[in-house]
Design a protein that fits this description.
11 strands; 7-stranded mixed sheet; 4-stranded antiparallel sheet; mainly beta
Length: 113
């Protein structure tokens, strides 16, 4: 049974940075695809960025040039580096193992002055 545990969320002022981590435990097979999604209050969950075990990335336009996803296959961990954060980035961020449709519990990111 694969489990995903996110960490690294918090409160940050506009323009600040955070790095989220998602550690996977259990049997992870390669190749796989892991992604980050987010859900703001009152809104549907939306795609942010994903990465394959081979390092190919895809992102949504609103985070282009600001967010960077990376993966450490040896540690079964995926990261999301978020720079130049904006208030509209405020949301609960979830990681997902797409190949198994498995979600983490989420971590709150709040961007406010």
């Amino acid at each position: 049974q694969v489990q995903l545990v996110e960490s690294g969320g918090g409160f940050v002022q506009p323009g600040g940075s955070l790095r989220l981590s998602c550690a996977a435990s259990g049997s992870i097979f390669t190749p796989n695809v892991m992604g980050w999604y987010r859900q703001a209050p009152g809104k549907a969950r939306e795609f942010v960025e994903l990465i394959t075990s081979g390092g190919t990335t895809t992102y949504t336009d609103s985070v282009k040039g600001r967010f960077t996803i990376s993966i450490d296959n040896a540690k079964n961990t995926v990261y999301l580096r978020m720079n130049s954060l904006k208030p509209e980035d405020t949301a609960v961020y979830y990681c997902k193992l797409l190949s198994g449709n498995i979600w983490g519990q989420g971590t709150q990111v709040t961007v406010s002055s």
